[in-house]
User: Which sequence fits this backbone?
């Protein structure tokens, strides 16, 4: 009802010809809609306008919560949207009054409620109804304000006053007019778990593909699907965004997981759409990139500085993530960046198809603006942050061998040729057991442990790439680094076997090793991004060895031969181990750099000038 006193809405509805010279446009609007209640006799303003307005009001009521009296028009996105949608309903009713419409079919208005979803029709076909002249694109005040308020309530300081309009103009420049004119429908819901689908958006007045303004539920868990035009999607908690179609401005207002789904992309090479995704400054969010290897140009700014970025892909898929450092970027001006300019930079500097080091072999284009040391990096759900943790690569083995041949050039020991496995003779001497007791076996236990970047018990291989020139101009450029994290999605594959041999041969060995085809490459990586401080951490191999000498009085297996006409017997496997004579323990550390490319520790990705990537004023 307050929008009946809005002069901007009244003027846009076309009441100018009916108002008095000194009267307000909104006064004429009120009278014209009121007179449309007359449904017989002389109908000065038709008989449809008031029916349309209250029908739309009834549909809008399904969106507004029961505690509407508690709503304030300050930082609440939904309260601003309720106001804007009301302006649309009132303007449409005023337009029908100005056109003196008596078309009963128009009584349903432009706001519709179905399956807990409110949809607002902004198409030329609907808004040209009743017009006596060739339809031109009308100024739909509420639609314009809804676009502005939806964006600025997340990225700016929301207010019902003019600052939202000024902020929007500063963000989008001349592109803002086209963005508003390109929205062909608005959909919103108060219920969680619904799908807001904008693929049915009609063409605009200029004949271009229409987009949708989609407002998610305050309770979250909304699924967004945009049309082929430019869409605005406002999520409010743990929502899913289909980023495969159209150009999408995606805003996640509250905490939770924003799932960016690229799984429906059919032709990565032919996908020219872009996605600008921004989180809330005050709340840490988790951005989940589903089917990341298929993502079209997707530019993300977490804003909070402690956000989580999780890249989900098949184990045989490689994913490239471009990390761009830009000065002067913040929550209020991120959307000023022109995605086409960023795309051109990637193609010129980082996407040379002849040089995989520049990311040329990646189909996807995921860009993170200004990652921080407190942001969290994940790959298929596993946190990647500490290169000093245990990797789960362990070799454990036993070496067993006869320490002495009991029949080597000595008459101290003899054997019974009829019972050659039983050693006979004097086994003691005043000079000491070790010197005389030759029936002994040495047991050697060892364990090798490898340390490196942890991924939930999976091995990780790392490499660095440091291109030094622009592939287009071949001019020297600021160094860019690429950190490749491999084998993050693998599972342990254990190979266990026993070898019962006791003469310089390996006994029981268990080896865990990792196999994986996919990798995650961070192009433009700076040491410290996501808390990965390679300069202060190294990997190492640690070998622990335990050696012990045991007495053997009887052998269960032996090699038997002759030498100089006398039997020779060499023990192979003891029937049992006797007393322990001596033991020793040793540990060897073999440190090495986790990357193997010292340039990564000193050369950094360049800081770009944000002004070079802004939209035209």
Assistant:
């Amino acid at each position: 009802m307050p929008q009946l006193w809005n002069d901007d809405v009244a003027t846009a509805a076309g009441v100018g010809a009916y108002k008095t010279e000194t009267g307000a446009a909104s006064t004429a609007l009120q009278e014209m809609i009121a007179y449309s209640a007359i449904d017989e006799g002389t109908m000065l303003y038709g008989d449809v306008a008031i029916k349309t307005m209250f029908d739309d009001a009834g549909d809008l009521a399904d969106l507004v919560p029961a505690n509407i009296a508690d709503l304030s028009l300050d930082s609440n996105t939904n309260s601003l949207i309720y106001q804007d949608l009301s302006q649309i309903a009132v303007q449409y009713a005023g337009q029908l009054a100005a056109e003196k419409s008596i078309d009963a079919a128009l009584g349903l208005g432009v706001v519709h409620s179905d399956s807990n979803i409110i949809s607002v029709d902004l198409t030329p076909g609907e808004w040209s109804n009743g017009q006596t002249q060739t339809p031109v694109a009308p100024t739909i005040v509420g639609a314009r304000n809804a676009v502005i308020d939806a964006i600025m309530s997340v990225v700016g300081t929301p207010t019902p006053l003019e600052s939202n309009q000024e902020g929007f103009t500063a963000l989008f420049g001349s592109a803002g007019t086209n963005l508003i004119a390109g929205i062909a429908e608005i959909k919103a819901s108060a219920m969680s778990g619904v799908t807001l689908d904008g693929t049915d958006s009609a063409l605009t007045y200029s004949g271009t593909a229409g987009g949708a303004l989609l407002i998610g539920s305050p309770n979250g868990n909304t699924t967004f699907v945009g049309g082929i035009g430019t869409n605005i999607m406002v999520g409010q908690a743990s929502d899913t965004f289909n980023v495969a179609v159209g150009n999408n401005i995606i805003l996640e207002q509250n905490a939770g997981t924003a799932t960016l789904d690229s799984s429906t992309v059919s032709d990565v090479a032919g996908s020219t759409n872009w996605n600008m995704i921004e989180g809330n400054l005050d709340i840490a969010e988790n951005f989940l990139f589903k089917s990341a290897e298929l993502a079209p140009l997707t530019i993300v700014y977490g804003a909070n500085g402690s956000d989580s970025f999780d890249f989900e892909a098949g184990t045989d898929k490689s994913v490239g993530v471009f990390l761009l450092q830009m000065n002067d970027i913040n929550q209020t001006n991120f959307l000023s960046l022109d995605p086409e300019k960023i795309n051109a930079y990637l193609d010129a500097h980082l996407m040379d198809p002849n040089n995989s080091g520049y990311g040329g072999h990646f189909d996807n284009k995921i860009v993170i603006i200004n990652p921080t040391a407190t942001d969290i990096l994940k790959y298929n759900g596993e946190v990647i942050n500490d290169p000093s943790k245990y990797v789960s690569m362990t070799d454990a083995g036993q070496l067993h061998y006869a320490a002495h041949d009991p029949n080597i050039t000595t008459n101290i020991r003899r054997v019974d040729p009829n019972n050659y496995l039983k050693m006979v003779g004097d086994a003691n001497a005043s000079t000491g057991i070790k010197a005389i007791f030759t029936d002994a076996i040495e047991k050697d236990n060892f364990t090798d442990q490898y340390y490196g970047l942890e991924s939930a018990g999976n091995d990780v291989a790392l490499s660095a790439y440091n291109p030094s020139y622009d592939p287009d101009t071949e001019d020297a450029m600021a160094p860019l680094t690429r950190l490749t994290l491999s084998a993050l999605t693998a599972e342990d594959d254990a190979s266990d076997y026993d070898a019962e041999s006791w003469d310089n041969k390996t006994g029981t060995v268990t080896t865990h090793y990792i196999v994986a085809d996919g990798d995650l490459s961070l192009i433009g990586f700076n040491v410290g991004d996501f808390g990965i401080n390679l300069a202060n951490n190294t990997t190492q191999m640690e070998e622990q060895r335990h050696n012990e000498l045991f007495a053997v009085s009887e052998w269960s297996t032996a090699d038997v031969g002759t030498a100089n006409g006398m039997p020779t017997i060499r023990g192979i496997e003891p029937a049992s181990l006797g007393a322990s004579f001596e033991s020793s323990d040793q540990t060897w550390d073999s440190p090495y750099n986790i990357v193997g490319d010292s340039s990564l520790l000193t050369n950094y990705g360049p800081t770009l000038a944000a002004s070079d990537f802004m939209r035209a004023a």
Notes: The radius of gyration is 38 Å. The chain has a mean pLDDT of 74. The CA atoms of residues 85 and 408 lie 102 Å apart.
